[in-house]
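Design review, sub-item: ligand-bound model
Attendees: FS, YL, KQ
YL presented the inputs for the magnesium ion complex:
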Amino acid sequence: MTTTTSAATAGPVAPDRRGVDPAAVVARTTSHPSLRDTCVQTLAMAWRALKKMRRKPEQFFDVLIQPLLFTAMFAFIFGGAISGSVSNYLPVLIPGILAQTALTVCMATGVQLREDMDKGVFDRFKSLPIARFAPLAGPMIADLIRYGIASVLTLLTGLLIGYRPGGGVFGCAAGVALTVISGWSLAWIFTWLGTLARSAQSVQGISMMIMFPLTFLSNAFVPAETLPDWLEAFVKVNPVSHVVSAVRDLLNDGAVTAEVGWAVVGCAVVVVIFAPLAVRSYSRKM
Amino acid sequence: MADLSAVRAESLVKNFGDFRAVDGIDLHVRQGEIFGVLGPNGAGKTTTLRMLATLLPIDGGHAEIFGVDVRREPHRIRQLVGVTGQYASVDEDLTARENLWLFARLQGLPSGRAKSIAGDLLDRFGLQEAADRPLSQFSGGMRRRLDLASSLITRPPLIFLDEPTTGLDPRTRGQMWDTIRELVMDGSTILLTTQYLDEADQLADRIAVIDRGRKVAEDTPDALKTQVGESTLQLRLSEGADTALAVDVVRRLLGEEPVLTPESGRMNIPLPDPNRAADVLIGLREAGLGISSVSVAKPTLDEVFFALTGHGADDESQMEAAR
Ligand SMILES: Nc1ncnc2c1ncn2[C@@H]1O[C@H](COP(=O)(O)OP(=O)(O)OP(=O)(O)O)[C@@H](O)[C@H]1O
Ligand SMILES: [Mg+2]
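KQ shared the predicted structure:
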């Protein structure tokens, strides 16, 4: 059995209608999907998710509206109070909104997965010889588009109301890239929740409970130094704070600082822990 | 290898909480046969099939498919079995063609190959015209056909069909039967469930009758039918007729016990030979008993059940309602 022979090359319905020989098929089976199979299957699942996105454009509503609304609203409401003026606040705010938007998209990943898993077609996915990783990771690849749209839109709104990122084109590109990476990594947490929870509704509830403290108890919208000590302590360990600081360094200074390194390491840790948890919980839930 | 069995399951058990849905079922399906699992609602048919298809964990017992252990090697099992569940498991948001293409890709076929197989299957199942329409516009029968087509992409040697014709009209049902027979001629083995004795009779080489999670009988359709008689005389006595007297008459003439149905004045009489129906009718008239309607039918699942278990298939639903 070579690695290029994929999981189920049992042969299609051939026009010549040769008989099926069970013993031969048994001999050809593999005990685990190969890495190559897993990649092909994940991409096929991503294709499915993209098709669905194109047929239901209304699910882009959140990634379109939230960046526009939140950026403008926060800038004009808190700008003066926190940084003295709107234009002084924007370098603080835009990276914060980027992180918040990414988290919102993550949350939708978990909720949608749960909804999807309740559908009949998941029975088929489970009965097919495919890697348990593929149905989870496929939609997440398609979601990269959503993170991309949301981050670029946030940045554009910022530019429109007067944000001038010091990092230039490189800084902006790197900032958006980091946002997308962080969003994608953190999405594994919500995917895991999606495989655990009983209903899409409960995923939504739990995710909200996680998301609000993570975004608001971070340095996303206010500098950590202005907070009481105990809160500041939490804000400093909150991974979202590190992502926000890293994005700030990239956008405002175009500098690849230690914060950027920590943010990337943090994302990797999240994926390493939560991806296997999600896959395991999904395969258990048969 | 020739006598390798397709399915060999021993004392399968499945618990849902305190409730034992499958209670020690043995199944032995030979290669190349159509094996029918017959049982009323809630008997445990779907649960048994899902355990064998690795869709539900097996709580007790042992199962092998073509010699491969179901619990230990689920990935291999999934390469051997094509599953068509009781409810269509296709993607409602994709078209029929896209569904087949996706399932083919997921099973490792290259894109072009996946496309041509999708086309072939759509042709074979008469779905070519609807191929690019959204599934929401599909009828129940079309969905079922697409579902079956989706299970055949890699020509699996064993195919599970869970109530493949429930909800289909008689013509579509006949087509489905033909398709199933063709699959067997190609060398596949089929394990199907049904609520209709008639269907099991038409298709299956052997039948296991299950009830409340247990197997109550396993035999060829002919052998099962002779246990309940070739056919059944269903009659309704006219208003006010003496039911007890009618029962006596039948017992005296045929030596069979008529099955009284819950509606008053109706009874089903197992007939060892359809020609004996006339004897009963004449006997009843001689006894002065009027009849308001009469028909001769094949034995129903209910009667098979009554003969095998001493209680009707309907008791099950009553029991469920009470639970
Ligand atoms: N996930 C579940 N949780 C709890 N009970 C279940 C579950 N699935 C099935 N059951 C119970 O197990 C019993 C057997 O169900 P199963 O679906 O196997 O019956 P069936 O023979 O397929 O019936 P039908 O003809 O209605 O499809 C039923 O009493 C059902 O209520
Ligand atoms: Mg069922």
